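task queued by scheduler; priority normal; single chain, no ligands, no partner chains; default sampling; output format set to structure tokens
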Amino acid sequence: ANVGRKVESDWNMVYVARGEGNCDKGEVTWKFKMREGLVVKKVKLLVGSCCYESGVVTWQLCSDRSCLLPAAGQQLETEQLSGSSEIQLSARLGGGEGESAWQHTQLFRCPRDGTAGLP
């Protein structure tokens, strides 16, 4: 895998990022398959990501019919994927500067103790 969970003990934060030293692109995908006989009616989604330097995170939510580009920190509520039996959410991480470029794109950054709200 080219992304993973990162714990910052000094800042007491946790997030998902490219692997340490991986300054190339990274990607993670979550797939949601409905039980037989069920289909998607409406999707409500809130994703969170932080970018530093020239880092870029691109979110994509797809079904077999269409794809949407959710924005970090903004709730997406849509029926455009209705009728689908499977959807997938992907985050593509890239960019950043220098040897720590891998750290310049972070997903779901929050305190280790879980005291933060949603992404």
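post-processing summary
- The CA atoms of residues 31 and 88 lie 4 Å apart.
- The beta strands are 3-8, 13-18, 26-33, 43-45, 49-51, 56-62, 67-68, 76-78, 86-94, 105-111.
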